[in-house]
Amino acid sequence: MKIFLDTSDVGVIKHHYQTGLVDGVTTNPTLMMQAGRNPVDVISEISSVFSGRGYHIGSISAEVVADSAEEMVLQAEQYHSIGENITIKVPCTYEGLKACRELSERDIKVNVTLIFSLNQSILAAKAGATYISPFIGRCEDNDIDGIDLISSIKRVFKLNSITTTNILAASIRSIDHVNDSYKAGADIVTLPPKIFEEMYKHVLTDQGLAQFDKDWKELNK
Ligand code: G3P
User: Fold this and answer.
1) How far is the CA of 217 from the centre of ligand 1 (A)?
2) Structure pTM?
3) What average pLDDT does this structure show over 154-175?
């Protein structure tokens, strides 16, 4: 059960990495635009965060943006040269799946993104993807049951003994999406940082802590 952060903000990643609970990072062109910096520099810095401590090298998804599989592979090579923890993210299109096949054959990890159907998941698994990213929030925006999609993918992968393609739930908008994704069988959930922060908060924890603090002060008066 792994947690990734869905952000290109290196400062935020460094902060949450200190918890020891973060197993990887996903980025995309929109998140890169928000960061407003050179994507190769951003991916290099994120890669170093995970290489800095011994316990986990993580998986950092860097998305290629190109019209042809050949161009995707060229961009992928540049990202892959940054470090062993780089995963190449390609869209679930004809060209993206071709690129996935070629990169997987070279033992480069691939995350096939923008998955909205079981059919796409089956093709991505056959193309050798290490990760597939069903977009839960965007499924719901379009009246598709994203959580049911995860359950279906899980069931089909199990029936066909597909063990090398991990279901990475993405486009997560709430803590209920997190819980429901894991319940449906997601191997990984990638979280916007604010959802990660919400996960450890509970009003009853705050109330209980306030009472404990008060009683501790009373005892030590
Ligand atoms: O992981 C994909 C994510 O960045 C997209 O999220 O909320 O824009 O659909 P959203």
Assistant:
1) 45
2) 0.95
3) 98
